[in-house]
Design the sequence.
């Protein structure tokens, strides 16, 4: 397989102030599903605490993890960057390396390894999301902290991590639930489109009605519904959260260009506040207040 050389920073968007979109592919409608992990990281940075992994999954059309739900505050979410080929083996057999299993609490650190793998001859990178039980881990015996503090810790495990702790696999072109049991909550529905007489139209008969009462006849209408749902749930969103949630639910992704999503944000949002590298945006018609979701 030819190496993936797509991980060149999108200087244009960075120069426009969208620093969290620095790895958005330069193609008009480009999106790499491993970037959904950075959307989780954006929520972690904005909230300052571990986000709700299942809420993140639902926004991306994925089932929730019963393991994460049952563990409650004892759940530890970690990320591992690897290659597409190794991700498949990890989902089946777990993680093991004689030098230790490297993981990160913040996905941006693990994503550096994903990008490195994407530049190697073995092909595409991948992200693996793990959920471990804090009560079963003993520092020194099971793991050590290699570097970082708090949410930026690099955690190295001394022994094998079984496949039971692998909950999500993120590849360039897809994401999937790899856990054992799902929650009963339904993820946000996706939308499929097809070409008809030169236009993109829904595969289903339009207007397509959603369970929450919304309806759409075009990809832009569907994207606007997704954005409004995120704003309602989160209070304010970072651009990468909007891109991640929308592109994960639209098939094929070519129906929406980057400018379409930026345009939706411009029409529906106003700037809320800056937090480090993130500028967040809230509903243009909403009252001021703190940003929502954990």
Sequence:
């Amino acid at each position: 397989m030819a190496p993936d050389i797509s991980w060149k920073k999108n200087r244009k968007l960075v120069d426009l102030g969208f620093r969290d979109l620095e790895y958005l592919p330069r193609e008009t409608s480009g999106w790499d599903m491993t970037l959904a992990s950075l959307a989780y990281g954006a929520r972690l940075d904005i909230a300052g605490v571990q986000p709700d992994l299942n809420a993140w999954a639902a926004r991306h059309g994925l089932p929730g993890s019963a393991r994460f739900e049952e563990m409650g505050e004892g759940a530890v979410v970690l990320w591992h960057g690897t290659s597409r080929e190794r991700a498949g083996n990890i989902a089946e057999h777990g993680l093991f390396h004689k030098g230790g299993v490297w993981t990160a609490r913040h996905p941006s650190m693990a994503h550096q390894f994903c990008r490195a793998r994407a530049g190697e001859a073995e092909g595409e990178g991948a992200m693996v999301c793990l959920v471990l039980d804090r009560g079963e881990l003993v520092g020194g015996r099971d793991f050590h902290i290699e570097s970082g503090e708090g949410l930026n810790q690099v955690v190295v495990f001394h022994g094998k991590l079984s496949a039971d702790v692998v909950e999500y696999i993120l590849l360039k072109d897809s994401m999937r639930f790899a856990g054992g049991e799902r929650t009963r909550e339904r993820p946000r529905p996706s939308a499929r489109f097809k070409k008809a007489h030169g236009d993109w139209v829904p595969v289903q008969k339009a207007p397509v009605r959603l369970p929450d009462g919304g309806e759409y006849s075009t990809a832009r209408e569907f994207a606007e519904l997704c954005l409004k749902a995120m704003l309602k749930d989160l209070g304010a969103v970072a651009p990468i959260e909007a891109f991640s949630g929308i592109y994960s639910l639209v098939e094929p992704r070519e129906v929406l260009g980057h400018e379409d999503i930026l345009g939706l944000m411009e029409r529906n949002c106003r700037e809320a506040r800056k937090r480090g590298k993130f500028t967040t945006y809230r509903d243009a018609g909403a009252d001021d207040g703190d940003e929502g979701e954990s």
